[in-house]
Design brief:
With 99 residues, the chain is mainly α. Helices cover 46% and strands 8% of the residues. It folds into two domains: 57 residues, Zf-an1 domain (Irregular); 41 residues. Strands 1-2 form a two-stranded antiparallel ribbon. A two-stranded antiparallel sheet has the order 3-4. It is elongated. The N and C termini lie far apart (78 Å).
């Protein structure tokens, strides 16, 4: 059992704040409800540009994900080419036995 970092209530499944990392009860799970210092720092550092307002903790992993997607697509293309070659070979063998 964890304790709420704000009110000290005992919680079996506490919420973890993505801004400060504290554990909180259901009532204080939102940053606004536990006077989150991490949220204040985030608001100060995010800048004035609206595109920086969205919290994206995994932004750095997006290019890696794209490369994995490209790898899967290339594997699928190779797989389709192998299936086509196999089909041609099977048809050739079938025609050879029929003639």
């Amino acid at each position: 059992m964890a304790r709420c970092s704000y009110c000290g209530a005992s919680e079996s499944m506490p919420f973890t704040c993505k801004f400060c990392g504290g554990k909180f009860c259901g009532e204080h799970r939102l940053p606004e409800n536990h006077e989150c210092q991490g949220l204040a720092v985030y608001k100060e550092t995010r800048g004035k540009e609206p595109e920086n307002w969205i919290y994206e903790p995994f932004r750095a992993e997006v290019p890696e994900e794209r490369s994995r997607v490209q790898e899967v697509v290339s594997r699928l293309s190779l797989r389709h080419a192998l299936y086509a070659l196999l089909a041609v070979l099977l048809i050739a063998m079938l025609l050879r036995t029929l003639l």
